[in-house]
Each structure stands twice: as C-alpha cells, then as structure tokens.
Amino acid sequence: MKRLYNIIAGLLCLVSVSCHTDFLELKPDSRLAVPASLKDMDALMDNMTVMNTTSVLIMGEIGTDDYYLNETEWNSLTNPYQKNGYVWAKDIYEGQQCPGWNNAYTKVLYSNIVLEGLGKINQNDKNMEQYNRIRGTALFWRAWQFFQLAQIFCDDYEKEAASQKMGIPIRLSSDINQPNARVNIEATYQQILHDLTEALTLLPVLPKEKTRPSKQATLALLARIYLQMKEYAMAKQYADECLAIADELIDYNKVDSRLSFPFPLYALGNVEQPLFNVMLEIQVFFSYLKVNPTLLASYEPNDLRFSVYFLKANNDYTFKGSYNGYDTFNPFPALDEVYLIRAECSERLGNHEDALQALNSLLIKRYKTGTFQAMTLANTKNILTEILNQRRKSLVFRGVRWSDLRRLRKERGYTLVRSLGTKKYELTPEQENLYTWPIPDNVIILGGGPQNVR
C-alpha cells in the first residue's frame, strides 16, 4: 500500500506541475514508484479524480451555438483560451497553457504506466479476470483521451484526406522524453479503434461501479467514433450491440423537473448513462451560461426535455440537465445518444422504417404522456433532418455539438454568429481551419510537429 501512495502522490505531482508547464515538457522523477502488483494498477485506474474528470471536450463546447455571452460577461473572462475560443480567434492561448491538453495526456500517462506494468506480470487462472479487466480499462481510457483530443486538435475525419492531414501525438509509452511528433489523422483513429477493439474483449459486460468502463460503454463509444468517421454501417452495428446489452430509457414523465438537478447524483441509478465522466469545469460555463434562445424555441409545448434540462434565471435560461446529477457536464455517450446514432445511421443506409422506430422509441419517453405523435413516412418530410434536430435537442452540453458541427458543416451549411456589443463574429462552413484548435504553443516549441493553421 505504501508503494501505491507513492505512485499516486508522484503522479498527482505531475498533474499539479502540468497546470503551470506543459505536460509533455515534464521530466521523469527517479523517485516515482512503478506499480508492481495488480492491486496497485487497479487503484491507479480507479483514481476517479484523474481518470473520470477534466474532459477536454469542454473546449469544443466553447465554440458551439448552444449558449451565448453578453459583452460584459465576455470581457470578464480571465482565461485567454475561453475568451478567444468563444469568438473563434486565430490566437487562442496568448502564450498561456492549455489545461485540457495537459489533463488528457496525464490520463494517457496513467494508462501507459499500467499497460507497461501488466507486461511484467505473469497471467494465470487466478489473476486472469482481474488482469484482463485492468488491461481493458487502461486501453479504454487511453483511446477515450485520444478520441477527445482528435475532436479538438486535428481536422475532422475525412477518409480521402485522413492520411495526408496531421493528427495528434500518439503516446504509447510512459517515457515522457519520447518525441511528441504528430501522426496523421488515419493513424490517430486507427490507434483509437485498435485500443477499443481489444478493450471490448477484456472488459465486463456491465461495470460494478459507474466510474469503471465496461463492454457496453466501449460499444457506445465505438458507435460515436464510427459515426464521426461517417462509417454508418459500423456505427449502427456497434449501436445495436450496445443496446442489445441494455436498452432502457428514462421516462421523463417520472423525472421531477422541479429539482435543481433532476437526474441521479454521480449518474448512480441513471439507466441511460454507462459511465460517470466529467468535463473540465471552466468559467465560461459555470459562471455565465445562458442557453441560446433559438435552441429553447425549438422544443414543443409537451416536450419534457425543456423543463428537465433548463432552469429560468431572471430573463434567461441556464442548464440543469446533466446526467451527472449536479453542475458538471458528462461528455460520455449515454443510451439516448446511442438510439440517435442507430436512427441516423439507419436513415443514411436507406432503412427509413428502422430509423423512425429508433427515433420514436426515444421521443415517446421525452414527451408528456399521451401527447407524442409517432413519426411515420407519411407525416415526416425529411427523416434525417428530424433526427439531427432531435439529436441537438437531446444531447445538450454532452460534448458532441462541436463534433456534429464539424462533421455536418458542409452537408448542412451551418453558419454560427456571435454578437458582442457592436461587433459580430461568424464561423462559416468555409472556415475549416477555425474548427480545429491550435496545438499548445509550448508543445510545438518542444518539437511537437507542425502547428495547425488558423
């Protein structure tokens, strides 16, 4: 146990330091103990303060159209990446650190330490189950970080160009003196899929704790990834496999919308959420969040998502509908998202009836009992448009809106507009470079490969 305390203390020291200097700059501490037992490695992966929190996907949320700030609030933001990210500026960091990047690679470090430690342990019949679960957990967490980083720091996946465009540094070693060179987007996604495909064979079907990954969580994540890659047949396959394990949806008629936070605390008892996960808490959302009136107006009178998700504050609305059950955002795909993935992929593959069935199965749980009119081929003009509209209304502040804007910007022609006083800022479908955040400056200085052009 003393060794474990040394491990965690040493690694938390790295996390603390990384708030002030770039994580990939850090030099290894010769006093840092290496986990030598399965018990130690289990504890390392169960460190929810590190593994389950500070998701980098919050950076994508900064640029979305689901909320707005007024000029006074915007001027009061103290962190450059939040202030500049809101208006899609070319210079994001102004020489300061990027906490999201640092936190993600800290989780990658934890995962790599465990994977290397497992390589030194002999498997046998007695430890096989624990060994496999720990290995699957480390692979899962590493892949989940790489995917999140790819949504922020490299272009969206386009099959034809994926081998020509730069991805992220894929760190597969705990040696932090390892070069930080970026691989291409294709190699980035292939590593993510490789890790998750193996994790799928190792993890339990369902977890004992919401803080631990599982086979169902892995299937949900694979469905999201393949949707982002526009591989619709694969995304639907994994969505179907995920829902074959458990497909229960929350009936919002049974949710008390009068509560400040209507869903179960820490996602415990939330049948839709397979994994407790937390986005990085930042000033722009936790001090000033006001929901976009256009989004609010899109909900019909009997749509319970409005009263469950949003709380009126003065003349505006804020968000209370986190599946974590308190004032943090959970970016991990829940089962309502998996239903929407099934619906979208079915429609794109030409299976209109299947698409409507998946969509109706979700929406009947979201409308006041007896008021929902099922969508049919006869009463639905454009099924795909309806699915995408419902996707936005269901997955508010779930870490997917930025990814959706990226993958759909050409197809749907989205233009985002910010107004601050007399100034207007626009993000058009043609401004592809502004959909990709720059690599942190000090990573580039340390040989992290070419910088993203803004």
UniProtKB/TrEMBL annotation:
<keyword id="KW-0472">Membrane</keyword>
<comment type="similarity">
    <text>Belongs to the SusD family.</text>
</comment>
<feature type="signal peptide">
    <location>
        <begin position="1"/>
        <end position="21"/>
    </location>
</feature>
<dbReference type="Pfam" id="PF14322">
    <property type="entry name" value="SusD-like_3"/>
</dbReference>
<dbReference type="InterPro" id="IPR033985">
    <property type="entry name" value="SusD-like_N"/>
</dbReference>
<dbReference type="InterPro" id="IPR011990">
    <property type="entry name" value="TPR-like_helical_dom_sf"/>
</dbReference>
<keyword id="KW-0998">Cell outer membrane</keyword>
<dbReference type="Pfam" id="PF07980">
    <property type="entry name" value="SusD_RagB"/>
</dbReference>
<feature type="domain" description="SusD-like N-terminal">
    <location>
        <begin position="22"/>
        <end position="227"/>
    </location>
</feature>
<protein>
    <submittedName>
        <fullName>RagB/SusD family nutrient uptake outer membrane protein</fullName>
    </submittedName>
</protein>
<keyword id="KW-0732">Signal</keyword>
<dbReference type="InterPro" id="IPR012944">
    <property type="entry name" value="SusD_RagB_dom"/>
</dbReference>
<feature type="domain" description="RagB/SusD">
    <location>
        <begin position="336"/>
        <end position="443"/>
    </location>
</feature>
